[in-house]
Each structure stands twice: as C-alpha cells, then as structure tokens.
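Summary: Need help interpreting a holo structure output

Steps to reproduce:
1. Submit the protein chain below together with the SMILES for zinc ion.
2. Request a joint structure prediction with the ligand placed.
3. Inspect the structure token block that comes back.

Expected: a single structure record containing both the chain and the bound molecule.
Actual: see attached output.

Input attached:
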Amino acid sequence: MNDIDTPDAAAHAAPGQAALDAKWLARAIDLATLNVSQGGGPFGAVIVRDGELIAEGQNRVTANLDPTAHAEVTAIRAACQAVGDFSLAGMTLYTSCEPCPLCLSASLWARLARVVFAADRDDAARGGFDDREFYELFARDRATWGMAVEAVRPENAPEPFDAWLALEARTDY
Ligand SMILES: [Zn+2]
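--- attached output ---
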C-alpha cells in the first residue's frame, strides 16, 4: 500500500514540503525513542498548522493505564485543547509509525488535512504491536473475530438521534 501511496502524496506536495515533512517526522521519531526511556511505548507524534507546532504526543498506554493513549490520540487531544476546538481541519499529523485503525479513525474525526508517517505496520509488528493484525481483522468477517460484536436493537434504539435532531442548539460535528 505504501508503494502506491507515497509517490502520489509526494507529487501533490508543495515545493519544500519534503524538507518540512522530514523535519517534523524527525521530531516525532525523537519523541518516540525518548518515550521508551521514560516508560512509554515507542511511538511519538506532532501536529502542525502552517509550519507551526501545535502539539506533541507520546504513547502513554502503560503509564496511564489507558489503551487509547496512543501517541496520535494524545497529540490530537493536546492540539484540540491548545486551539480550543474539536476540529483540527487544515492541520497535519506527523507520526513516528503508521497510524493503527484507532488513530486513523481519530484523525478522520479530527478532520486533519494530512497524516504523514515514518515506520509502517510491518515495523510495528516486528516490535510486537498489533497494528497489522488489527488492519487484517477489519478486512475479515466479524463472525470470525475473537471479540464478539453483536447488534441488539430495542424499539427505542433510534431515540437518541431523534433527540439530537430535535435539538436546534446542537453543535454539529
Ligand atoms: Zn494507534
């Protein structure tokens, strides 16, 4: 997948973008390596807007007892607090490793403009992380998963959405 995506992304990048990308990726990789010596997982990320650093993040899963505290999620949370918005539209996430499905989804929810990564899911697998396994899982029928995912639909299942749509003062996201 990378072999197809990388030249295409480079072709669309502005002049000088490659040097900027290298600079921010280097910071993400430094954060990742540093994190290992600080009791965290080997992952780091930064979020940048118009060449300006908005936030940094490191993996804090074991330190915080939080399985969702991936470096990208940590950086997204910090960036949202920094800019006072739940949207990071127009910003770029640089991460030391290809985002797992959780972080890729978080990036979509955050409306990031770009995601740039260094190491890939195969590097992560070598390190003992499940990224590649989860990607493969999503490609398979849920009936084959080790974790049960079941739909149970009571009559009032759609009720929260009725309440949401009826609320004129809602903040759409
Ligand atoms: Zn992740």
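--- end attachment ---

Reviewer comment: The chain is about 45% helix and 15% strand. Residues 70, 72, 99-100, 102-103 surround zinc ion (CB under 6 Å).
Status: needs-info
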